[in-house]
Design goal:
Order of helices and strands: HHHH
Helix content: over 70%
Structural class: mainly alpha
Distance between the termini: 37 Å
Number of helices: 4
Strand content: under 5%
Number of domains: 1
């Protein structure tokens, strides 16, 4: 979103309120498409976890500790995604419709911090996935 859609929205219009509504509609469509994909990733991840865990006690030994850490980070990521979409997404769209641009700018700034945290969590999860493939 940051690197493709938001910059492209500047090519469509200079009206900040209109740009925000366009990006919001795209983000909503993208979110609707990703919900089932996230569910598939979680389900296949649970299935794949059986390869790493011979028993529940395996969570306390390598690579189970990596898996446990990954599960915690994924739960945190999903919670942040939900909070970001429900709280920030809806408020940003509302402020754009009401043309309250100063408040919109401040809220967007806080929203970017949550988005950066999401990206950081995704990279950490990817790193843990890679580490799980390495022999002990």
């Amino acid at each position: 979103m940051w690197w493709v859609i938001v910059p492209a929205s500047h090519l469509i219009t200079t009206d900040e309120s209109e740009r925000t509504r366009i990006v919001g509609k795209i983000a909503r469509s993208f979110g609707n498409m990703t919900k089932p994909l996230i569910a598939v990733l979680v389900i296949t991840g649970l299935y794949n976890a059986t390869w790493y865990l011979p028993s529940a006690n395996g969570l306390l030994e390598y690579p189970g500790t990596l898996l446990l850490t990954k599960v915690i980070l994924i739960a945190l990521l999903l919670a942040l995604i939900y909070v970001h979409n429900v709280y920030y997404g809806k408020r940003i769209i509302r402020l754009a419709k009401e043309a309250r641009l100063d408040e919109l700018k401040a809220l967007r700034s806080r929203s970017r911090i949550v988005s950066a945290a999401n990206l950081t969590l995704m990279l950490l999860i990817l790193l843990l996935s890679t580490l799980m493939q390495m022999p002990p």
